Amino acid sequence: MHDDRTLIESRLRRVLDERIRPAIHPESVPLDVGIWTAPGEPVPVDEGIAAPRRPIAVGDAWGAPWGTSWLTVSGTVPEAWAGRTVEALIDLGFDANMPGFQCEGLVYRPDGSPVKGLNPRNQWVRIAAPAAGGEEVLLHVEAASNPVILDYHPFLPTELGDKETAGDTPQYRLARMDLAVFDETVWQLVIDLEVLGELMAELPVEGARRWEILRAIERALDAVDLQDVNATAAAAREQLAGVLASPAEPSAHRISAVGHAHIDSAWLWPLRETVRKVARTTANMTALLEDEPDFVYTMSQAQQYAWIKEHRPEVYARVKKAVAEGRFVPAGGMWVESDTNMPGSEAMARQFVHGKRFFLEEFGVENQEAWLPDTFGFAGGLPQIIKAAGSRWLLTQKISWSQVNTFPHHTFWWEGIDGTRIFTHFPPIDTYNCSMRGKEIAHAVRNFKDKGRARHSIAPTGWGDGGGGTTREMIAKAARLRNLEGSARVRWERPAEFFAKAEAEYPHPPVWVGELYLELHRATLTSQARTKQGNRASENLLREAELWAATAAVRAGLPYPYEELDRIWKTVLLHQFHDILPGSSIAWVHREAERTYAAVAEELNGIVDRAQRALAGDGSAGGEVVFNAAPHARAGVPAGGAKAAVGAAGGCTVEARPGGGFVLANGLLRVTVDGRGLVVSVVDLAGGRETVAPGAAANLLQIHPDFPNMWDAWDVDQFYRNTVTDLTGADEVTVAVETPRAVSVRVSRSFGASRAVQTLTLAAGAKRLDLETEVDWHETEKFLKAAFPLDLHADRYAAETQFGHLYRPTHTNTSWEAAKFEACNHRFVHFEEPGWGVALVTASTYGHDVTRTVRPEDGGTTTTVRMSLLRAPRFPDPHTDQGVHRFRHALVPGASVGDAVREGYRVNLPERRIAGDADVAPLVALDDEAVVVSAVKLADDRGGDVVVRLYESRGGRARARLTTGFGFDGVTVCDLLERPRGDVPVETVRAEDDGVVLALRPFELLTLRFAGVGQRGWRESMR
């Protein structure tokens, strides 16, 4: 037989595009359209519906960037259409290739009740089935003219990312505005042909099944009268029935499809627009659930449910009903799909606390899975947090984006830094926006790495990023793929159903230990420095506010600010979303975040101030009380307590250095700053060790060109290192402070269009060099780092993560190690030879890199750590990081990992001084500094119990005694939601007199709840 395969495949494409698809709506009449444009931000629905309209026609321009226009469409169903299915076709000027990334709309009835959302892949509104002739049609559309930021030529700088710079040029032109007949038979024929054509293209040419489908398609096309598709569509479908009925092989891969719309809580649109995106999508999905009995839809991010509850209660009522029916599934149990690298320990825990509690209170749903399809890598401390929240599974897809190494598993145990294991799945379909195309299904089957041991995977199905969700076409395709020869078997299932099946069939999957590092988007650890600093400052202030408010409640009966802390936590958690905290959103998002963080700081400082004033006693005599929120005592002030201030001992000196520069000393360290303002020597006097590598200089600012191949705000490509400029020229090197208690040197530098001022301080009694850097930054596409070359040989180093630290190699033996050329730390990195180490601690930076070289002069090893300070990408915010920034670091020679932990907290939680004369005993105290308290608060249920969260911080076993500064009736080991846990060994916690004896594993996290605290009177006074 002659090979006519390509001929028929080409025929299929053309006939579908030019004849069959257009026949889905064979008859139409135009709708009348009127428009009103809101003068500023979006208005309430009743105001938008009532506003006066002016006529607008198809082809007319509308919609300034970020504007809202209210359209009214009206018409009459022709008498000849009586008994047929009628739809309104509303095309706002869509590009079908950009669902979620351009204009969108939400359709309302005249009474203001929402109908459904409009987007490029969802332009229809069902009017009636069957319709009555002469029926009047009146709909209102709240149309958002969101500009296209990520266009066909991506990553071009644009001012459209902020309403203050976007201008008022209309972005769109109205396209189709019609009433039309919907021919379901033709629509079903389109789905038949698409499913079979897409499947055929993925089957081997040598196989019989491909040719069987080809011949069936050929017969179907022969049966179609191209001049009367609607009359012949049923006959064409009959020719396809046989190949569609052929069942899948028994060994076929199983795909659990779950409806989904991965809606970024902010990205190329502001937070306020996400509120409307969620409303549009959920309106569509609840309508689909009513029409499609097999369909299951899932949505994560409790924040998004809270938004529609507040702003679109009618839509929320439909969501609650569908959740109660088990069809609309809350997933993930987190407040937002956050970044997981940069959020601190408590913040990462509170993502689950607030997310899971919302789902429990609103729906009675307890999530077992963490749902993070798009997060940019996963910190090694996360498994323990997931388990401590009462969950057991994790889903993500993003690791498939890694540039260098292909992850070896799709289903596996992920083991965290403490040994906790979480059953984890990466969908082999490699997308969280599956559209049920044959190419996607076939890729999942071929790509699945656990063949022979497992046969289940999951497919989040629906348009995402900017929302939209699942379409009726996707559902129809899935129905045909339920049991179709040559394809995987597809069925709609809830995430929990998938995970239960996957875990049951694969009881002994492989184990991956440590972080799940994404070999991409590494620059998100640095972009938008103000957002990152606002996050870190908010986390620190929340710790302080909870600690001092709880202390003041117990000690002084001050009402505990439950509502305020709950609201502020949710605000901070929202801004940890994986396109806000990473710095990859438009300018509007980060400008707004900066204002939000400032408001958060003001309110939290007020809570702290009120609590401390209630505790500090009489300040009329001019005395001061020093409050220490850190988990370690310092200068005689206990951890979590306060003490009357006493004078500090002196002992610091600064002397001019021959040839320029200065020598600073305090009896513990001797620091040499040369005439260029660079640190050329830091001697640990007790250890007799030099910290800085021979011939090198520390605290060296270095600048690189930074123009990645794509994803400007997200990526830094390894070739950036090929070119570097050391900023060694100094405008000024002077002594800034010279007292017995502290000495400091100020160094000023100019470079490009920017300026940096660094202050190097040595304080009395401190075995550290404090470094403050102020940069007035006006560079473009540059990367600024601060380098510290250490005279130290180590093949690995420690970087702090949630509730502990993880180790990374300093070498690049393998491609996996080489790919980690930019990595994350929280408060410290630590390097160690046996018996002597160095820590570099930071108050707000996250990105860093580590390299090592062997010196030819003496054969010694130089290990260089560089803290990443600033970038200047131009997309999506063309003015990223411009302006003044301030950073604080400290170099700690002779440091153990315990010293690194302590100094990391110190630089992040400076002492506070307030007028008063009282000593304040801490609520809890520990006799082992390896055990660190991460939170002291009152229980969220407002019963007055004190909750203490703590962890082993050094990576070893610890036995510690925790004593309380209050009486209590009993102590319970709880999960993160402050519910009793039943899986804690008896020896872990033992109550004893006024305290608790703890036995902790390396990095083990514990939450303790103390009941019956103190006198009941203060508890009642708080209510």
Give structural attributes.
single chain; 1023 residues; alpha+beta; 9-stranded antiparallel sheet; 19 helices; 26% helix
**Class per helix and strand makeup:** alpha+beta
Query: What's the overall average pLDDT, rounded?
Result: 96
Largest sheet: 9 strands, antiparallel
In quaternary terms, these chains amount to: single chain
Can you count the helices?
19
Which outline best applies?
elongated
In the predicted model, the low-confidence regions spanning at least 5 consecutive residues are 1015-1023
**What is the C-alpha radius of gyration, as a whole number of Å?**
31 Å
Give the spatial strand order of the biggest sheet: 32-33-34-35-44-41-40-37-38
The helical percent reads 25-40%
Which band does the percent of strand residues land in?
Answer: 25-35%
Number of strands: 53
Distance between the termini: 87 Å
